[in-house]
Design a protein that fits this description.
Blueprint lengths: L1 H25 L10 H24 L2
Helix pairs in contact: 1-2
């Protein structure tokens, strides 16, 4: 049970880092993905493809 919780925590931290890195690099283009519960869940579940999907969703709705 503890291993499972640590694995989930690791994925959440990696997802938050990916969102922060994306926002840092593309802030000059005003392509920011807000860091909230929904985006962290998507980034945690799908890693890099989730970030790409969020970026495409942002561009389509921009």
């Amino acid at each position: 049970m503890l291993k499972f919780l640590l694995k989930i925590l690791k994925k959440v931290v990696i997802g938050m880092f990916l969102l922060f890195a994306y926002n840092t690099f593309l802030s000059s283009l005003n392509l920011l993905i807000p860091i909230n519960v929904i985006t962290i869940i998507i980034a945690s579940l799908f890693d890099v493809p989730g970030i790409i999907g969020l970026a495409i969703f942002l561009l389509v709705n921009y």
